[in-house]
Amino acid sequence: MQKIRTYLGIEIKYPKTAFFELSSCEGCQLQILNKEATLLNFLDLVEIVNFREVMSNRSNDYEIAFVEGSVTRADEVTQLLEIRQQAKTLVALGSCACFGGVNQLKNRFQNLEWVKKEVYGNHPIETQEVRPLSDFVTVDFSIYGCPVKKEEVEEIVTNLVLGKSIEHPRYPVCMECTANGNICLFNLGEPCLGPVTRAGCDAWCPNNRMGCWGCRGPADDANLRQLQKIMDDHNIPRQAMFDRLECFGGFTSAMKEMDR
Amino acid sequence: MKRLDFVDVLSADRSSARESDLNNFEYSYKAEITSVYRLTDTEKLYQIRIVDKVQRHHFAFRPGQFVMLELPGIGEGPFSISSSPSRHGDLELCVRAVGNLTNFLSRVARGTVVGISGPFGTSFPVEEMENSDVLLIAGGLGIVPLRAPLFCVLENRSRYNQVDIIYGARNPSEMLFTYQYQMWRQFDINLEIIVDQADATWQGPVGLITEVLKKRIKTAGNDLSSNTYAIVCGPPVMFHFVCDMLINARLPMQKIFVSLERRMHCGRGKCCRCNIGATYTCLSGPVFDYWSVLNMKEAI
Amino acid sequence: MLFKVFPENALEILYDVLAPYPLVGPQAKGKDREDKDIFVFDYINSFAELRLDFPTTIHSVKKFLLPSRENLCTFNLFDGDWEKYVDFNIYKPHVFFGLHPCDINALNKLDKVLTGPVYPDPFYSSKRKNMFIIGVNCNPQSWCFCKSMGADTVYSGFDMFLTDLGDKYFVEILSATAYDILTQLPIADPSEADHRRFIELMDERNRNFVCQVDSSDLTKILDLEFQSPVWQEWGDRCMSCGSCASVCPTCYCYGVKEYVDLDLTTATKQRQLYSCNLIDFAMVAGGHNFRPDSPSRLKYRYYHKHRGFQEAYEEALCVGCGRCGQACLADITVPDVIDSVRRQKVPK
Amino acid sequence: MRNAINCDIKIKHLTRVEGHGNIRILIKDGQVKKASWDVVETPRFFEAILVGKQWENAPVLCGRICGICSIGHTLASIRATEKAFGMVPSMQTERLRLLLKHMETLQSHILHLYFLIAPDFLGADSAIELIKTHTEEIQRAARLKLLANDGGDLVGGRRLHPIRTVVGGFTMLPDRRKLATLRQRLYAALPDLNKTADLFGSFTIPDFFRETEFVSLQANGSYPFIGGQLMSSDGVVKEEEDYLAMTNEYMVDHSTSKWSKLSRKSMAVGALARVNNNFTALHPSAREIAGQLGLQPISYNPFMNNFAQLVECVHVVQDSILLIDELLGSDWQESRQQVIPIAGHGTGAVEVPRGILYHWYQFDGDGRITKADCVIPTSQNNGNIHHDIKAMVQELADQGKTDHEIRLLAEMLVRAYDPCISCSVH
Ligand SMILES: Cc1cc2nc3c(=O)[nH]c(=O)nc-3n(C[C@H](O)[C@H](O)[C@H](O)COP(=O)(O)OP(=O)(O)OC[C@H]3O[C@@H](n4cnc5c(N)ncnc54)[C@H](O)[C@@H]3O)c2cc1C
Ligand code: SF4
Ligand code: SF4
Ligand code: SF4
């Protein structure tokens, strides 16, 4: 039995928490293990009952389910539906789960047979169009990013446990980038999706002088028409912009309205 | 070499503990929730008492002012003081659970210690209103900030002429402070309530608040120009219609008072979030006369 | 005001005297597409890093007074009770070596709001009072319109102000501390020739201001043109990204967020500088947004700076440094916007 | 005389490994009827995804093949691209890349040793359980991992899916003062590694041997991690570009991952292969630890792979210290070269924690990828794992072990390879 804990007089439960992965690189789960300084506190915040990457025991009794990865095969749909049935709260962990992630790039080929053949030759292999979780089940919270940022995961989980509301920044990455005192990458001649991508990563890539690739998907009301103009004005090839926009799947629907 | 020894300006510890300077920026009073009443499904009335006796006694506010209420780690937000100014630091706040802070607040039990800072903002000129008719017009949660001036009126009833409360609620189950209606009426206050949607129990009028107001204005001979003050509180859409009617009834703009809502993070005229132009709702408001409102773009 | 001169090479002595303190100044931090240096204000570690010949920096010194994120207080929670701790986050006086007049003027404007008279912000004030400022004169850039904003010269808010006369520096001294420090340099009274040279230089500098904004009657015009279609056009371009406010030396609005630590026993209240261009700036509980679209938000920024602030303090909340226009990827600049409101035409 | 044993073991989604794999064991009357290692991970088709993409996408996308060795994938991808374009990285870039690589090796090996392997030896379900029983060990693991991850942040900008490494060099160079601090921390970590060696030295690893062929990069003066010639313990030596002759990938029915072989029916890559093949190139203190752990080339015990990882940890920490000394000993040069794409193809071979990794791309004149191939260590190991299970289970059956013991040992055997399954099915 765990000790009882309270916050401002309210009893705070240890929610039973499980981690699952569909098609992914498992990097987002690894990020959870990757912040050693706070890992122990994190493990104490919730009761982890299922985390295949680190533990052998498995339990099907959980309230919060973190699901990483996108859906690319029929058995994953079944698994996802089962998780949804059990979990009170289903969290999409990372861009694969939220938007399809890099995996969904294969959707851009009309011909799935060609895709299979290119990689596996004539060997039979099962796969389907890559889809985010929300195409099959209701997702309660999304944690964006490829990979997710551990600080953000910690904040969201703490809020979830406390019952605080969870809100993502609505504004784009530029805000965080300029607040960090960075030199804008367009000034340096590099393309960047910061003006249209949802903030929250603290401008991870621009801080390292790499233009944003939009892994967190679009900000509220992202102005893609203006982005196109900015890219043109800075002589960035259209292709480079579209490569980035389509990379993680977050902009798929927004891109439909842009001319290639 | 000690040339640039500009001293430690305000030492943080000292400034937050200094009693003589209670308005200091990050200072907050510790206050205990002494009781919680559930008024409706979403609103609760909190009785909050500043813990320190001396501070409690010195806490003075004017009707219409608000406090910032803080739950450590959860959030801070502005709430109108809904109790009588004569009760000093024994406050009543009525809070609707709408978001992060307010939802959490709705879960805490009595005995919890919260942080209170303030009072902030402008107030209704209740002294100026003496010897006049008073129209208190409230929509929904707007009744909350009206309670403080109402208490002033009740406590000095003889100094005011006719007092009307016109209160519009969405439906009977959302009516606030029902337990006090009887008492208000005993003090010779005209209470008219209208709901948007009736339910089985409702016997009173159904419709928009303007209909009740129209009647009231009619009985005054369509002329409010002499000796009337109005206080209007409610959702932004209500302001336009109600205030227009009052102006058409020739009530001078300086005698119409409204309380505006804006996002506030500091309550101290710094964070800029409540700005309308450069007018800080927290410093120059939340109570404005209607003339000032008309002079601010996008105020309502 | 006292005036002195000291030889060019004595600048390093001045640096050495002040070097024991945290010293912030302009330095080159990269090259742009045209291979020109890009300047920023940052901590200086050697005299060679200090580059007083800078045009303007991308960001202002704001971050040292109003960091983009600053903890306002922390809480320790225990058994139903809690304790609050406040720290103003300043432990040593800072030297700011090389602020242009517009940047000092910007601080003076911030002072009006943040140091008084009601509820002075102690986080800002404590840092502001612990600043030792050395101003330097600038070379006007093509986008500077500080002259139109009356911010091209500065009379207060600094300790000493340097103008490069060629072989020597002309110093305006405004504080006793500054005088005290200068006594360690080979200073002399300026000669008649120095006076002439200074005035000539100022004349020349004045002629170099090319960018202008007609701000006459601006408060009225902004009111009149509140419904002007130009706002829609500018708004369509705006990315609502807040870069303009981030780089602006006079923008100060913020939001507050509270964090609870993983162990649920400590919490922090943090302020984050915000921007009125961000989509949720004027959103209130329940989802109502007073300025839901980018035209209304962009317009609001101009209203606050050039109308509201003017009304409250008889000056605009803008020093004409042009940083916002430089930072804006959509090419929205103050001179263009104000001009378009006057002429009802938006440049393409 | 004991009864001949019967058992039927099905392990679905083996835990404490990266990705999804199943173990299937069927023993009837003491005879192993079936013993197989099946990878059931869903494929993501990276090789197809890359087709048509501009060169600059390759490292960004390929890093996402695997979360654990994203640094290795990124570096292999960059190397393949640079070689296709005829670019030669500067000395400074090479050093920084190797330093970054070392950080990945350290963090991955420590993760594997403490979090995935140690619970088996200490009789625990997971490292989470060990937090209470073996607090000091877990804290030590966290310290070492933190060091490696911080190093990754410093050089690569991010510990996972690095940002600063691009074709042509680095977008940004590490802060020199922080580099010096990293050096200090690396130095201070050596005692932790010695304690780790003491801990693992106290475990008895299962006594199982099966001769096989070990494939790795070949040392060229120094212990190899990035590029160079390929070698096998059976004496095959090939150029990097000839990697296909080294891997010979083929498909098997029960697995979504491909398999490989060279001179025999299966081959092995990874820490043990590297240590076996390049023992003399290890840092002396790494060799010392190897001696302490009883690891001598050529070892055919697959469980020794865990010890080989530990030996490599010591090597990379020592080598990182030298690298930082070299980096700090000279001024920063230009960090990034200009990239001029030309038509052609290139191979990048990189030793990632689990073995040798190849990326191969073909580009058109505009720098667009027309064909891509990635060969992942675990797919090279699959065959070896499979045959090891078979051989070991037969031995265990002969010894009359219980279901439970067979199951546990089979799991431990697979874990010893530290398979990276999502990687192998990419
Ligand atoms: C002068 C004034 C008096 C008020 N009086 C009352 C009252 O008596 N009773 C009552 O129920 N409500 C009142 N409100 C509204 C109340 O402050 C908000 O409903 C509350 O802050 C919402 O906080 P939240 O965290 O629950 O909501 P969220 O939507 O989660 O809000 C997030 C943050 O935004 C800020 N915020 C959001 N909406 C508002 C808002 N409308 N005004 C100010 N800040 C906001 C808060 O600081 C909060 O931290 C008043 C508002 C003002 C300006
Ligand atoms: S680098 Fe990118 S995120 Fe940063 S300001 Fe420029 S466009 Fe915005
Ligand atoms: S900067 Fe862009 S690509 Fe980088 S982490 Fe943030 S959202 Fe993702
Ligand atoms: S509004 Fe623009 S020009 Fe004016 S002070 Fe701010 S950044 Fe400078």
Key attributes of the depicted protein:
heterotetramer, B: 300 residues, alpha/beta, Elongation Factor Tu (Ef-tu), domain 3, Rossmann fold, 2 domains, six-stranded antiparallel beta sheet, six-stranded mixed beta sheet, 8 helices, 14 strands, 23% helix, 28% strand, C: 348 residues, four-stranded antiparallel beta sheet, 11 strands, globular, binds flavin-adenine dinucleotide, binds iron/sulfur cluster
Radius of gyration over C-alpha positions of chain D, nearest whole angstrom: 21 Å
The ordered H/E elements of chain D are EEEHHHHHHEEHEEEHEHHHEEEHHH
Strand content bin of chain D: 5-15%
Query: Strand-residue fraction of chain C?
Result: 15-25%
Shape of chain C: globular
SS field, number of helical segments of chain C:
12
User: How many separate domains make up the residues of chain C?
Assistant: 2
Condensed summary:
Chain A has 260 residues and is α/β, with parallel strands linked by helices. Chain A has 2 domains: 5-162, NADH:ubiquinone oxidoreductase-like, 20kDa subunit (Rossmann fold); 173-255, no CATH class. Chain A has 11 helices and 7 strands.
Description of the structure:
The complex is a heterotetramer of chains A (260), B (300), C (348) and D (426). Chain A is 35% helix and 12% strand. Chain A has 260 residues and is an alpha/beta fold. In chain A, a hairpin with a 2-residue loop joins strand 1 and strand 2 (10-12). Chain B is α/β, with parallel strands linked by helices and 300 residues long. Chain B is built from eight helices and 14 strands. Chain B has helices at 12-17, 53-58, 100-107, 143-155, 181-186, 209-219, 236-248, 290-294, and strands at 29-38, 43-50, 66-71, 75-80, 90-96, 113-120, 133-139, 163-169, 189-195, 228-233, 256-259, 275-276, 279-280, 287-289. Chain C has twelve helices and eleven strands. The longest helix of chain C is centred in the last third of the chain and has 20 residues, at 294-313. Chain C is globular and about 65 Å long. By secondary structure, chain D is of the alpha+beta class. Chain D has helices at residues 46-49, 57-63, 70-84, 91-121, 127-133, 135-156, 176-201, 243-247, 271-277, 284-293, 304-329, 377-398, 403-416, 421-424; strands at residues 7-11, 21-28, 31-39, 165-166, 169-170, 213-217, 230-232, 237-238, 267-268, 344-352, 355-363, 369-375. In chain D, a hairpin with a 5-residue loop joins strand 11 and strand 12. In chain D, helix 5 packs across helix 6 (135-156), helix 7 (176-201) runs antiparallel to helix 11 and helix 9 packs across helix 11 (304-329). Chain D is globular, with a radius of gyration of 21 Å. Chain D starts with 6 loop residues before the first strand and ends with a helix. The chains are: A alpha/beta (260), B alpha/beta (300), C alpha/beta (348), D alpha+beta (426). Chains in contact: A-B, A-C, A-D, B-C. At the A-B interface, loops of A face helix 3 of B. The complex binds flavin-adenine dinucleotide (FAD) and iron/sulfur cluster (3 copies). Flavin-adenine dinucleotide is lined by residues 66, 75-80, 94-96, 98-102, 141, 144, 261-265, 286 of chain B.
